[in-house]
Amino acid sequence: TCDTGDQQTTAAVQLKEAAATIVEGLRDVATHEGEDAVFECRLSQETAQDAQWFLGDVPLQSNEMNEIRVQGTRHSLTLRKVTLEDCGSISFKVGQHSSAA
Fold it and tell me: To the nearest 10°, the Cα dihedral for 30, 23, 20, 62?
């Protein structure tokens, strides 16, 4: 606020959070049927709200077959006891950025 006595003007400061980027992408994983496959990705910041994992085009959620974890800037996906049907592309997307393995 600027106040000169007879006049006053006010302005506000608004900040937009910078979009997260992928600083360490996914790597291919080779494992045996029945074992776990773990994928990891590291982001530029911790507060990425729109991060999503995919198997092919199917979005994944944490459940008894998939474990999705976030520890700081590190995002990980564990596919438990993989089968031949789990073979394919795994991707991680955040904002306009993506990585695949």
Answer: 20
